[in-house]
Specification:
With about 70 residues, the protein is α+β, with helices and mostly antiparallel strands. It contains 1 helix and 3 strands; from the N terminus they run E-E-E-H.
Length: about 70
């Protein structure tokens, strides 16, 4: 499964990311590369926890679209 994740840059220059289809699945770091590594671990840990607690694993539902602003 492939989950969409959103990366946001904070005013202090740090970054954070979250997975819309996995509520509470987040990571933060000082660079986009750090976020890319961290989100893989965050998703794996999140899914492992769901499996451990015998909870259903959500199917990816989010899609990405962009809009051009004038």
């Amino acid at each position: 499964m492939k989950y969409l994740y959103i990366i946001e840059k904070a005013d202090d220059g740090s970054y954070s990311a979250y997975v819309p289809d996995l509520p509470g699945c987040t990571t933060c770091g000082d660079s986009v590369e750090e976020i890319r590594r961290g989100i893989k671990d965050a998703v794996a840990t999140y899914l492992d926890s769901l499996r451990e607690h015998r909870e259903p694993i959500p199917s990816p539902r989010s899609v990405i679209e962009t809009v051009e602003a004038a």
